[in-house]
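Next up, sample data:
>
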Amino acid sequence: MKKLFLLLFVSGLATILQAQTEEPPFYSDIQNFKKQDSISFPPKKAILFIGSSSFTMWRDVQDYFPGYTIINRGFGGSTLPDLIRYVDDIVVPYKPGQVVIYCGENDIASSDTITAETVAQRFETLFEAIRRAYPKMPVAFISMKPSPSREQFLPKMQSANRQIKDYIATQKKAAYIDIYPYMMHENGSPRKALFLEDMLHMNKSGYAIWQYAILPYLKK
């Protein structure tokens, strides 16, 4: 009996220690950002882009917005809870002049149990976390795009977009940037020509549309 108790104790202790040493999701991405910052820290009052792979892959985003200083802190595969987890790492240190968010698409695609209401609530939590750090800073949200590879999720994405838009309308210094209609055909299908072969990430034509839609909302 004593040996069994000791075995269970050791096993339980090992499980606890392993849980304590496991890195949270996207920890390495955040550490890479910090490494970049240690070499050259971005200026204050810049425009901070946070979100998922649509930002991560926009590697030349600065070229699309001459006259603005852009900090790109998108990390591929991230969901809204991931952004919430890392607010103190990817928002607070930069003292930005504005935050622009693209996220939520991965939330919906991750599980059939994730509802549009859940995504909207997660956005509100992120928005409130940013506002606690910077109460008067402008925040903009880019609507979830109609990716052809995720066409089955489009009704849910549209619903989440509407709910987020309605919430933003109740907030000061907050903007909803609707890129969705620009990326759809008149027949209601996504414009595949705006996407790479994976039909999830955008090509230069897709990003040109984003440039057109985003630019009027950027703050000097």
